[in-house]
Write a structure and sequence with these properties.
Length: about 325
């Protein structure tokens, strides 16, 4: 397999693009990208898409992500993590874990969050951290995020807090920690972060960067790659017949009412945070093959024809 997704356990103090660059130096001429940026501070699961699989990154990033981390109470920094300048210090008294958990729970569900000043979000073609380093704070419009879980797992030495977060893409854990610290009236900054899950993938499925580089140098990266069906397995799917599959691959629009009927008939439940639906065919008793991924539900809620996000192959 020359195209696919390789799961890497990103080391600390490397950017996500550093990982891409390391593999590009070996797999010359191959298009390579990553799904979901990790800050240099963070470690953990980083899906690397190679070749045609780069077109799957939007679907990988649409899944829920899980993080485990450590925050420090009593201080706020301008970067919301341990790399920044301390801008506020507060005394930390006795805090019961039940109180911390109650505060954390208030930061679950749908909410709006603005990108932090020190982030890679662009403004006039430059990342926000470019301006922040010059003392210019750019306030970007908030984006809707969904935090399924914000769990305080342990309080250590009165100032260190272990936590776990499950959330959608675009969620800045640093910002979540900063807001939590303000709500707790102690201030807080992120000191450690590890991504443990992305969509259907968990950290125990990942390889070290050194392992991936060694296999790539030997020309044996194929066994480490995940195929399309595995990569898309977290997206709910409905089974369609070959007639509809042919129409889709020939660009003929599909009526949303037809798909809604299939969803109900096949008992498929849609995840509220996943804006996609997989359309699969079944042939000769096989487990099926994904023909296309469509946007679902319709972005404006009233379209009668379904828009395809990706069509994979022709049906004979």
């Amino acid at each position: 397999m020359s195209d696919g997704v390789v799961l890497i356990d990103k080391p600390a103090e490397m950017t996500s693009f550093d990982v891409v660059r390391a593999l590009k130096a070996i797999l010359k001429g191959k298009k390579i990208g990553h799904a979901g940026t990790l800050d240099p501070l963070a470690t953990g699961l980083l899906p690397i898409c190679i070749g045609h699989a780069t077109k799957l990154s939007q679907f990988i990033m649409a899944g829920l992500k899980e993080y485990r981390g450590v925050m420090v109470l009593g201080k706020r920094t301008d970067t919301f993590d341990g790399h920044g300048r301390v801008i506020e210090e507060r005394e930390v008294g006795e805090i019961a874990i039940e109180e911390a958990r109650k505060v954390a729970k208030a930061f679950t569900g749908k909410m709006e969050q603005s990108p932090p000043p020190f982030s890679a979000v662009k403004h006039k073609g430059k990342p926000l951290y470019y301006f922040a380093r010059k003392g210019i704070v750019i306030q970007k419009d908030p984006r809707e995020i969904f935090v399924q879980l914000f769990e305080i797992t342990n309080l250590r030495q009165g100032r260190l807090v272990d936590f776990r977060v499950v959330c959608t893409k675009g969620t800045y854990i640093r910002s979540l920690v900063d807001e939590f610290g303000k709500a707790l009236s102690t201030g807080a900054y992120l000191s450690e972060l590890q991504r443990t899950r992305v969509g259907p993938f968990s950290l125990d499925m990942a390889y070290s960067l050194d392992e991936a580089i060694e296999m790539a140098q030997k020309g044996e990266l194929g066994p480490l790659m995940l195929d399309t069906e595995t990569v898309l397995s977290h997206i709910p799917s409905v089974e369609i017949d070959l007639g509809m599959a042919r129409e889709i691959t020939h660009g003929i629009p599909v009526d949303s009412g037809v798909l809604q009927g299939l969803l109900e008939k096949q008992g498929v439940e849609i995840e509220p945070y996943l804006p996609y639906l997989r359309l699969k065919t079944r042939s000769n008793g096989s487990s099926g093959r994904t023909v296309a991924v469509c946007h679902w539900p319709s972005p404006n809620g009233i379209q009668t024809k379904v828009k395809m996000a990706k069509v994979f192959s022709n049906i004979q």
